[in-house]
C-alpha cells in the first residue's frame, strides 16, 4: 500500500460575513496546514470495489469521507478501478482541524495519481467542494485566504510558527454552531487579508454550548493569543519557536490533551504543478 499524508488545518481567524440563500454561511478565513495529521494508505484494486479496511466508530460507510471521495471520483471519471483504503487516524473528529476533509482531499489526490486520471487541480477542487466546504483548500495545497464558503482561495505567505493545539473532550457538530441564533453573521468584509489578528465568530457560540472549550482557552490564553479553530472544539496559540511551544505544552494540567506542531506553507502532497500530486 502507498502512504499519503492528510495534514490538519487551523483557521487562524474566521469571520462570518454573510449568508447564502441556501443557508450556508459566507466566510473570510486564513487556512494554515500543520505538520501533524492522519495517514491514508491506499492500494488500487482491479475489480472496481472501494473497500474501507478501517471503518471509523459511529461513521457508516456511505458517510465516510474517504469512501465518498473515492466513489465520487470513480463516478465522475467513469474509472473502472477500485481501491483498498486504510486510514491511520490521529486527528480528533469534530475538532475543527479538518481531519475528515483532509482525508477526503488526500484520497482524491492519491487516486488521481494511482488511477492515472490526471485531472487538473481546479477540477479536483470543484469535486472536493461537493464533499464539504473545507475540502478544496487541501487540494489547493497552499496556505490560503478563503472566501465564499471556503472555495474562493488566494495563496498567502505566512511567517514560520509553532503551535500548541489543545483538544477539549467534546465533539462539535459544525451544523449546530452555524445554525445557532446567537451567531454573529455580519462581521464587516475585509478587502485585504490580515496575516495576524482577526477573531473567530464561531467561538462565542461554541463556548455557550460547550463551556469546557472556554476552560481550555483560558488556560492557553495565559501564554499566548489563544483562539478556537473552525467550529471547534480545538484551541490553539502560535509561538515563534518549537522550544517555546513545547515548554508551554509541557506545563498543561494533567489530563489536558493536545499536541505541538509546526505550521506548513504547502500541503505535503503539493507539487506546484497544475495537476495535484502528479
Ligand atoms: C467551520 C469550518 C471552517 O474551516 O471548519 P470545521 O470546523 O468544520 O473544521 C468549515 O467552514 C466547515 O466546513 P465543513 O466541515 O467541510 O462543513 P460542511 O460539511 O460543508 O458543512 C456542515 C454544515 O455546516 C453548515 N455550514 C458549513 C459551512 C459554511 N460555510 N456554512 C454553513 O452554514 C451547514 O449547515 C452544513 O450543513
Ligand atoms: N474520514 C473521516 N474522518 C473524520 N470524520 C469523518 C470522516 N468521514 C466522515 N466523518 C464525519 O465528519 C465529521 C466531522 O469530522 P472532522 O472533519 O474530523 O471534523 P471538523 O469538520 O470539525 O474538522 C465527523 O464527526 C464524522 O461524523
From TrEMBL:
It comes from the Bacteria. Gene3D superfamilies: 3.30.230.10, GHMP kinase, C-terminal domain. The active site is at 9, 134. Pathway: Isoprenoid biosynthesis; isopentenyl diphosphate biosynthesis via DXP pathway; isopentenyl diphosphate from 1-deoxy-D-xylulose 5-phosphate: step 3/6. Residues 65-142 form the GHMP kinase N-terminal domain. Residues 198-250 form the GHMP kinase C-terminal domain. Catalyzes the phosphorylation of the position 2 hydroxy group of 4-diphosphocytidyl-2C-methyl-D-erythritol. InterPro entries: GHMP_kinase_C_dom, GHMP_kinase_C_sf, GHMP_kinase_N_dom, IspE, Ribosomal_Su5_D2-typ_SF, Ribsml_uS5_D2-typ_fold_subgr. One of its GO terms (molecular function) is 4-(cytidine 5'-diphospho)-2-C-methyl-D-erythritol kinase activity. PANTHER family: 4-DIPHOSPHOCYTIDYL-2-C-METHYL-D-ERYTHRITOL KINASE, CHLOROPLASTIC (PTHR43527). It holds the Pfam family GHMP_kinases_N. One of its GO terms (biological process) is terpenoid biosynthetic process. Its EC number is 2.7.1.148. It catalyses: 4-CDP-2-C-methyl-D-erythritol + ATP = 4-CDP-2-C-methyl-D-erythritol 2-phosphate + ADP + H(+). Keywords: ATP-binding, Isoprene biosynthesis, Kinase, Nucleotide-binding, Transferase. This is 4-diphosphocytidyl-2-C-methyl-D-erythritol kinase. ATP binds at residues 92-102. It is an enzyme of class 2 (transferase). It comes from Parasulfuritortus cantonensis. HAMAP family: IspE.
Amino acid at each position: 500500500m502507498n502512504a499519503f499524508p492528510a495534514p490538519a488545518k487551523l483557521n487562524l481567524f474566521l469571520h462570518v460575513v454573510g449568508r447564502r440563500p441556501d443557508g450556508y454561511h459566507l466566510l473570510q478565513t486564513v487556512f494554515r496546514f500543520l505538520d501533524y495529521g492522519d495517514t491514508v494508505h491506499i492500494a488500487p484494486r482491479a475489480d472496481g470495489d472501494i473497500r474501507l479496511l478501517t471503518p471509523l466508530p459511529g461513521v457508516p460507510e456511505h458517510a465516510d469521507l474517504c469512501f465518498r471521495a473515492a466513489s465520487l471520483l470513480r463516478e465522475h471519471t467513469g474509472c473502472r478501478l477500485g481501491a483498498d483504503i486504510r486510514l491511520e487516524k490521529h486527528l480528533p473528529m469534530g475538532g475543527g482541524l479538518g481531519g475528515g476533509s483532509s482525508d477526503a482531499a488526500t484520497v482524491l489526490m492519491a487516486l488521481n495519481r494511482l488511477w492515472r486520471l490526471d485531472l487538473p487541480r481546479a477540477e479536483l477542487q470543484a469535486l472536493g467542494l461537493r464533499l464539504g466546504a473545507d475540502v478544496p483548500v487541501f487540494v489547493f495545497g497552499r496556505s490560503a485566504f478563503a472566501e465564499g464558503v471556503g472555495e474562493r482561495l488566494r495563496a498567502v505567505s505566512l511567517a514560520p510558527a509553532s503551535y500548541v493545539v489543545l483538544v477539549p473532550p467534546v465533539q462539535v457538530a459544525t451544523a449546530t454552531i452555524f445554525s445557532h441564533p446567537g451567531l454573529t453573521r455580519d462581521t464587516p468584509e475585509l478587502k485585504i487579508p490580515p496575516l495576524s489578528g482577526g477573531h473567530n465568530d464561531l467561538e462565542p457560540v461554541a463556548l455557550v454550548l460547550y463551556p469546557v472549550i472556554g476552560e481550555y482557552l483560558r488556560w492557553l490564553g495565559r501564554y499566548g493569543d489563544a483562539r478556537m479553530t473552525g467550529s471547534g472544539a480545538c484551541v490553539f496559540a502560535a509561538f515563534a519557536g518549537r522550544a517555546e511551544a513545547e515548554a508551554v505544552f509541557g506545563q498543561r494540567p494533567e489530563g489536558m490533551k493536545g499536541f505541538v506542531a509546526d505550521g506548513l506553507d504547502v500541503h505535503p502532497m503539493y507539487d506546484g504543478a497544475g495537476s495535484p500530486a502528479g
